[in-house]
Amino acid sequence: MICCCVKSENNKKYAELDAKLARKMVESRRIYPGHKSLKSMDSIIMKFPKLREGLRNIRNVFESYDNDSNGTIDIEELKKCLEELQLSLSDEEVKGLYGWCDVDGSKGIQFNEFIVLLCLIYLLSKPSSESNAESREMGPKLVESIFDPIVEVFLFLDKDGKGKLNKADVIKTLN
C-alpha cells in the first residue's frame, strides 16, 4: 500500500510521507547506478532536453484527462488517468495522493501538482533493492523516462546519502 495516513492531520501525514520518501531515496542509492555517472553540473545540464521532452509528454497526458479543460484534474479524471497509465491503486490510495498533492486546496490537481503526484507514485511503488532492474519498471516508459533521471540527479546532489537535500550539499555540488 502506498498511502499510509489518508485521514491523518496535515503535519503528521506530511511527516510520515517525508520519512517514507527519505527511506526510499536512501534505498534508491543501491538501485540507481546512474547517479554515479554524473560528475558535474554539466552532466546534469546535458539531461535537460530529455527532461523537457518527458515533461511535454506528461503535459499531453494531463491535458487529455482534463476533460472539462479547466486546467485541473478532479478525482474522477485522476482515477481514469491512473487506470489508463496502468497504475493500479486502491480508492483509498488515490484519495490520499489527491489530498497530498492538491497543495493549494483547490479541489483539483493542477499540472505541477500532477507531476508531484506521478513522482510520488513512481517513488513509493518502486520495489526494494532486492528486485532486479526488469521488475522496477512501472507503468509506461513515459513515467520511467522522466523520473529516473530526476532520481539520479537527486542522488547526485544528496552527498550525505540521507535521502534529503540540504542547502549545504547543493551549494557544495554547485561549487
UniProtKB/TrEMBL annotation:
Q: Which CDD domains match?
A: EFh
- UniProt keywords, alphabetically: Calcium, Repeat
InterPro entries for this protein: CALM/Myosin/TropC-like, EF-hand-dom_pair, EF_Hand_1_Ca_BS, EF_hand_dom
Q: Which residues form a coiled coil?
A: none
Q: Which SMART domains match?
A: EFh (SM00054)
| Positions of the EF-hand domain | 53-88, 145-175
Domain of life (superkingdom) = Eukaryota
PROSITE patterns registered for this protein in UniProt: EF_HAND_1, EF_HAND_2
What name does this protein carry? Probable calcium-binding protein CML22
**What's the source species for this entry?**
Camelina sativa (False flax)
